[in-house]
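Project outcomes to date are best conveyed with an example. Our students and postdoctoral researchers have been running inverse folding experiments weekly, and each run begins with a structure described purely in tokens. The record below, which covers 164 residues, was selected by the lab manager from last quarter's runs and is presented without edits.
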């Protein structure tokens, strides 16, 4: 393996220093996060432009809400599946879409375990969370405190939060 190949491989596995996490125990399902995200990306309140999705689940007569967004995977399957190299992991560890290279084939969506990338409803290119360049609007607008933007190292400490 050449030195350049090794650098690319290491860069692909890089995680952002901070990620968005969701505590379902605090979520009220208000969808303010979706509104903030949609507005940030489209200047509209249309949920189709939101990179975060809130879904309601019921179990044993109780309901709860889960907010799902891109996990900025260490090895992003979405980027590896793209035949046009339109999804690229930056030096900051965030996977972003090059709208010019993207041909709208949806392979990134099929490759993602969460089916997170989705096609822009008007332009047809892939869209996904870019962490709002380090200031996620979804977290800013979450009045219940269910969304947090935390250091990756703290994820292990918060493991209980993800058990349903």
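After processing, the design step wrote out the following sequence:
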């Amino acid at each position: 393996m050449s030195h350049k190949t090794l650098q690319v491989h290491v860069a692909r596995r890089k995680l952002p220093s901070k990620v968005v996490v969701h505590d379902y125990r605090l979520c009220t399902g208000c969808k303010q996060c979706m509104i903030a995200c949609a507005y940030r990306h489209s200047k509209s309140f249309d949920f189709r432009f939101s990179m975060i999705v809130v879904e309601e689940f019921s179990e044993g007569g109780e309901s709860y809400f889960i907010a799902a967004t891109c996990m900025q995977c260490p090895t992003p399957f979405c980027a590896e599946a793209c035949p046009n190299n339109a999804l690229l992991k930056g030096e900051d560890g965030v996977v972003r879409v090059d709208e010019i290279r993207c041909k709208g084939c949806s392979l990134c969506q099929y490759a993602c375990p969460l089916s997170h990338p989705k096609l822009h409803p008007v332009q047809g290119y892939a869209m996904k969370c870019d962490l709002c360049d380090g200031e996620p609007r979804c977290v800013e607008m979450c009045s219940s405190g269910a969304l947090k933007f935390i250091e990756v190292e703290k994820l292990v400490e918060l493991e209980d939060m993800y058990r349903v």
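The two ends are 42 Å apart (CA to CA). The chain has five helices and eight strands. The training component of this project remains on track.
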